[in-house]
Design brief:
Layout (H helix, E strand, L loop, with lengths): L2 H8 L4 E6 L11 E8 L2 H14 L3 E4 L12 E8 L1 H7 L6 H12 L9
Parallel strand pairs: 2-4, 3-4
Antiparallel strand pairs: 1-2
Length: 117
């Protein structure tokens, strides 16, 4: 997979390579994500999921980081950090992350593609 193409689709200043996941977990553990992207709204989430599905890269969506343990070897794929919920709460909206994920899923196909196919 050409990471530069991935950066061009999602935005070169918003896609990071080898980003330490320890910065995003409650226990401050975890190795690097091969590719890291922060979704700030539902459209970002849709685009990231669609792109990962099209280029057949394994991906995972990270929420608040409290209920996850990440290996020191990291994740050899795309980690999408969901920032939409935090912004929605700040605006006192009642829309949950589950609704956001469902909307993104409906527009992109398989929601969680662990195998990359």
């Amino acid at each position: 997979m050409d990471i530069e193409n991935f950066k061009n689709i999602l935005g070169p200043l918003r896609v990071f390579e080898n980003e330490p996941l320890s910065k995003y977990t409650y226990f401050k553990i975890g190795g690097p994500a091969r590719i890291f992207f922060e979704a700030k709204n539902v459209d970002d989430l849709r685009l990231a999921l669609k792109t990962a599905h099209e280029v057949k890269i394994p991906f995972v969506i990270l929420g608040g980081g409290a209920n996850v343990l990440v290996s020191d070897s990291g994740f050899d794929g795309l980690v999408i950090k969901n920032r939409h919920n935090r912004q929605a709460r700040q605006r006192n909206q009642k829309r949950s992350g589950l609704v956001c994920f469902r909307n993104a899923y409906e527009s992109t196909g398989p929601f969680y593609n662990r195998s990359g196919s």
